[in-house]
């Protein structure tokens, strides 16, 4: 068996992929702010209001740089170990994720590598195709268990676009409408996004128990603030 890591060329490709994705989001934000601040009469000649988008774009640029740096550090530290009894994923900032070969319920080739699912909902291991000697790793895994023809995704993975629509629709309705019915629906949409899609991500065993507890508390606090905001907008207080 053996231990597999990502080489220099793989790290460069991953860094470029993250840069492209962040650049696309940044471009979309610039277009959105450009539309509102150049074509909306409420913002014409209100130069003091330009401070907010400038600060937001600068923050996004800084946070994108940090995210890319953290992601590259994680992939630099990534190791996949395969032996007769276990498949182990190690990476910086996370506990080791160990799947017993007897625990594997499904193993499939996906677009960017391999996904291995255990019997529990949080037992999910993703193996990137950027690993050196990836073909050899595939052969080792196939000796443990034949690959399935397709992957069976969880609800939040399969219908990720529903979560995106809930988030965008909820934010749009909450910020543009004064209709109580629309405000309540927008609040419900955002709560569903938080507790169906966001919360599901932290069930993965790659996150430590302490991190999952912290994430749950943050979600509850955000939910309470969101509910309070909806109530205040419905009664016309804000």
Automatic annotation (TrEMBL):
What are the UniProt keywords, alphabetically?
A: Membrane, Transmembrane, Transmembrane helix
Q: Which residues cross the membrane?
A: 21-39, 45-62, 159-175, 181-202, 214-235
Entry protein name: Uncharacterized protein
